[in-house]
Amino acid sequence: MATATPHGLTPFPPERPGRLPEPALFTERGFCLRALRDADLPRLCDLYASTRSEEMALVPWPDGVKRQFIEQQFTLQHRHYLAHYPEASFWAIEHRHSGGVVGNCYLLRTPPEHLIVHISLFPDRRGGGLGSALILQCQADAATAGCGVRLHVLQTNTGARRLYERLGFVAEEGEGAHLLMRWNP
Q1: Residue 61 near residue 52 (C-beta atoms within 8 A)
Q2: 32-44: string of b/e by CB count within 10 Å (b at 16+)?
Q3: Model pTM score
Q4: Is 10 within a domain?
Q5: What average pLDDT score do residues 110-131 get?
Q6: What range defines the domain where residue 76 resides?
């Protein structure tokens, strides 16, 4: 269930022209991409929390303090993405029938490489092909424009790293806790 997020979050920019074509797998399974709206922020905060749940389980804080910390971290991440990638497209991955946001994707489409700024799915949607289908669509879109694709992954996120390697991304260099990966058509 979505909970409140901190006030004063920067609003999402209007939808960029040239939406990414929806992967066939999305259509087959009833999913779609749509521009994120400010009303999605509580659900996105829950999505962010799901990506930190294993880490937070090890912290001996009361649940309320953990949630406050997660909301603060989400707020900082949200502001960072909007400030540093204002030209990116910010999409929700949504199920057409339930209307629920199950993930998100932030994509900056600028030559010579498109940048997958962020991609995430709720745990119950991971491993079912949605992420792979979306990344493959990002790669196809970049190849059509004569571009490669880059992304960063937490060095400790071995599952995501294996996925990216299966999709042809090559690890290049570490940047702190993150690893830069590139794909070229």
Answers
A1: no
A2: ebeebeeebbbbb
A3: 0.92
A4: no
A5: 96
A6: 24-183
